[in-house]
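Support request from a user on the community tier.

User writes: "When I paste my C-alpha cells into the form, the page sometimes reloads and wipes my input. The last time it worked, I copied everything first. Here is what I submitted, just in case something in the input itself triggers the reload:"
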C-alpha cells in the first residue's frame, strides 16, 4: 500500500484544505514517492540512510511495534515497560527515565502503563529532547493537555496523539464529500462507537482513561475532523448499568449532546455493548445531515452512502487507501510533508471530552 502521496493526491482524497480547520498543506514533489517497502529520496532529508530512531514505552494501548518491522523510515532501538524479547538490536530498559537517557532515541511512542500518568510522561519526554507519539487520550485533564502543547512549542519537539481517524477510509472520503459541498451546510451529526465488553476492561479509569475519553474522543473527532465543524459545547451522561463486575468503576455507556459553531447540533453514543465483535470489533456508524442530503457510513457492512435530495442513494467506493498516522508523523520528521492538523486542532476533540468528563464528575 502506498502511504506516501504527492500533494495533489492528498488534497484530492481528504479535502483538508477546505472548511473551518487549520490544516498543514502537503508539499511533496512529483519525485517524492514510495515503492513498496523502500524509502525514496524526493525531498531533502528523506533518504534510505536517514531513519528516525524510535523507543517504545508501555503496552497499554495501540503500541506501534508492528509498524516498525522493516519500516522504510524508522528503526526500533529501545523499549521500556515492555515484554522481554530477544533482539540484538533493541535495548531493554526498566523505566522511562532509563529510556530517555538513551541519546540514540529520537522519538518515544507512549502507551503508558497508567493513562493518568501519560501526560506527565509526555512532558518528560519532550523536555528530554524526544518527539512523542501518544495513545489516546493524551491527557486526563485540560491543564495537562495545555502543558503538553506548551512544552512541545517550548522545546521545538513534535507531539502527536494517535489521532488517525482523519486519514482513514471511509472517513477521508466522507470529509472530501462534505467539504466539496455535496450535502450542503452541515446541520446535524449522529455518531456511534461501540466496542464489545470483556472482563479485562479496567475497573479503574486511571488505567485507560475510561470509556468517555478513550472511546468518546472518536465522537468529537467525527464532528470536528470529518464533518469539519467546530464544537462549542459538549455535555455527557454516563452509566455503569450492565457492568457485571463488582467493585468496577468502568462505565458501560455514554451519551453526548453537542452544539456546533455554525449553529448546528450533534449527538453521539459510545458503549461496551457491541454484540457483533466477530464481524466488527469497533462498530462505528456516522451520519452527517446537510441541507442538500445525507452522507453515512456503517463499519459493519463497510458501507458508505450518499443520499441527495430527489436522487436515489448512491454507494461510494473510496479510491484512495487508508493512511497510517504514525507513518505520516515519521515521514514529516524525515523532512517530508507536515502533519495534516495543527497540534491545537488535533487535540481539540480530546479537550472537549475532557471538559465534559470533568463536568460530569463534578455534577
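"...and here is what came back when it finally went through:"
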Amino acid at each position: 500500500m502506498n502511504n506516501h502521496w504527492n500533494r495533489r493526491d492528498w488534497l484530492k482524497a481528504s479535502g483538508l484544505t477546505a472548511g473551518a480547520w487549520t490544516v498543514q498543506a502537503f508539499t511533496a514533489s512529483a519525485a517524492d514517492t514510495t515503492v513498496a517497502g523502500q524509502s525514496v529520496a524526493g525531498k531533502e532529508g528523506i533518504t534510505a540512510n536517514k531513519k528516525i530512531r524510535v523507543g517504545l514505552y508501555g503496552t497499554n494501548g495501540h503500541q506501534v511495534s508492528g509498524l516498525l518491522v522493516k519500516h522504510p523510515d524508522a528503526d526500533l532501538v529501545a523499549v521500556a515497560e515492555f515484554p522481554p524479547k530477544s533482539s540484538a538490536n533493541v535495548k531493554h530498559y526498566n523505566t522511562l527515565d532509563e529510556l530517555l537517557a538513551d541519546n540514540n532515541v529520537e522519538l518515544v511512542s507512549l502507551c503508558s502503563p497508567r493513562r493518568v500518568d501519560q501526560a506527565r510522561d509526555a512532558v518528560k519526554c519532550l523536555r528530554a529532547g524526544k518527539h512523542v507519539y501518544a495513545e489516546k487520550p493524551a491527557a486526563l485533564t485540560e491543564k495537562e493537555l495545555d502543558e503538553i502543547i506548551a512544552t512541545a512549542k517550548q522545546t521545538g519537539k513534535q507531539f502527536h496523539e494517535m489521532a488517525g481517524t482523519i486519514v482513514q477510509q471511509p472517513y477521508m472520503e466522507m470529509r472530501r464529500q462534505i467539504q466539496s459541498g455535496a450535502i450542503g451546510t452541515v446541520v446535524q451529526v449522529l455518531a456511534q462507537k461501540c466496542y464489545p465488553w470483556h472482563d479485562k476492561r479496567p475497573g479503574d479509569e486511571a488505567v485507560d482513561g475510561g470509556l468517555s475519553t478513550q472511546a468518546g474522543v472518536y465522537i468529537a473527532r467525527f464532528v470536528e475532523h470529518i464533518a469539519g465543524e467546530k464544537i462549542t459545547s459538549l455535555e455527557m451522561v454516563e452509566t455503569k448499568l450492565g457492568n457485571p463486575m463488582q467493585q468496577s468503576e468502568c462505565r458501560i455507556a455514554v451519551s453526548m449532546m453537542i452544539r456546533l459553531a455554525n449553529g448546528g447540533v450533534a449527538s453521539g453514543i459510545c458503549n461496551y455493548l457491541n454484540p457483533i465483535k466477530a464481524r466488527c470489533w469497533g462498530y462505528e456508524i456516522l451520519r452527517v445531515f446537510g441541507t442538500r442530503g445525507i452522507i453515512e457510513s456503517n463499519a459493519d457492512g463497510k458501507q458508505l452512502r450518499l443520499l441527495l435530495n430527489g436522487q436515489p442513494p448512491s454507494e461510494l467506493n473510496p479510491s484512495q487507501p487508508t493512511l497510517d498516522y504514525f507513518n505520516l508523523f515519521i515521514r514529516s520528521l524525515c523532512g517530508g510533508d507536515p502533519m495534516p492538523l495543527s497540534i491545537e486542532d488535533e487535540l481539540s476533540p480530546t479537550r472537549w471530552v475532557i471538559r465534559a468528563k470533568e463536568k460530569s464528575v463534578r455534577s
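Agent notes: The reload is a front-end session timeout and is unrelated to the input. DSSP finds ten helices and 14 strands in the chain. The CA atoms of residues 90 and 115 lie 25 Å apart. Escalated to web team.
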